[in-house]
Amino acid sequence: LDGIPKVILQPNIKEKLSTATTNFSGAALKALTSAITVHYLAQKRLNNKYEIREEDALILADRTARQYQLFLGLNTLPRLLLHNLDNRRLLSHNANHGSRDSTEFHLPETYRFTGKIIISLHDKCVRTEVIQKNNRRHIIEDSLRETEENLQQLLERITSYGNDRNVPLLQLIDLNLLSSKGAYDENKIFETLKERYDECMEYKRSMIVYDLDSLVGVNQSDSESSMGTSTSTSIVNQSIYIYVTSRFREAAIEASCTDKRQKNERWAIAVVRDPFLLKKFTTDVDFTFTNEQIEQDEEEHRRSTITLVCVKCRDLYVESDNKMSSCNYHDGFVYDNLARDLKKYKPSRAIEELNREEFISYTNPKKKEEIEKGKTRFKYICCYATVQVGAGFNGCKKGKHGFGNSRKKNFEGQILDKQMIDKWETACDENPEYNQQYADLFDSRKN
């Protein structure tokens, strides 16, 4: 493209076109140069002020790519970049999310790279692994723009990375590649994968891109139990996953080479959307975690190991297993069904009263018969069930454990403090629905 005069192709458009022709052969580039020159001269005769626009150059490049069968996936790279250009223009009306040039997508020489990049479509970011001066690995994060929602829309960024590093070969490994090669059985799949990988090894600089979601796949299955619905996640194509992880780990950049042109650079990029697959792959290839990912991992560990006590049912649980229907409880206050005023009680106060009366009946046998008659007088307003000492706190409602800030189980002292119990019982006492139900019950007693 350097042979095209500036008067025909502006430098900024030529730079965009260099990205679009990353996978062009020498013959294809020569044909494109000729096509651009002929097109410009023809249009110039019709309009003396004519200038080649970016979309004009990409359309010409697309025709050349199709002529020479230069496809990346199911489409040509120029056509994919043309789609991206249209998408960016649709968003250009939003000042806060204006279009960004592909020139922003850089892998500068100032960093010492490991050759490994993971692009998370779920987190909408690119994570590039670098080595710091203290030889510790570090992650540089770059946010994806709004138009980058799938692998095809990421190719402009990826090819710009390749141009930065003078990478002559870019390989895209996805389900479309396997389909185009008729790779439906395992032997043919691995033959295709090995063929593409070996081709990368023939170059000093190469970049291979894996679409993990289409290649590997994730299966989710739900199972029902008395504790609610639980979901298990697993890898679908385990053998392909093992192959990709082993090849991804082999990506490396030569550090000790005086001539940069002779330096070997084996780049590997993984594009992934599924959060489970992202975390598993990042761990299995020993890719450096970001501080945010480390914090999330620590939080997940805490949720699955630290034992909490539920103020509603008084049972123990861990947050990761806290699902609907795991907690069985009463959410209403207690009233004395034998009292004329239907006196209200908090559940803990009613149990204290029953325990006190049990002690009195033991120490004073004369009152035992009278006390026995009143043992069943306390009722829950939510379901009219009888309050019984030693019956636990299982109730008429099912939901999740916890209310407010659940307390960590303390093996050295009290598991639940009175403040937390009082907070829950006050919420039950102030329930508008049950207070109306209580008022109706009181009115019915008057009649």
From TrEMBL:
Q: Has UniProt tagged this entry with the keyword Coiled coil?
A: yes
Extract the coiled-coil ranges from the record.
137-164
Record key words, sorted: Coiled coil
Look up keyword Coiled coil and say if it applies.
yes
Q: What is this protein called?
A: Uncharacterized protein
Q: Which organism is it from?
A: Rotaria magnacalcarata
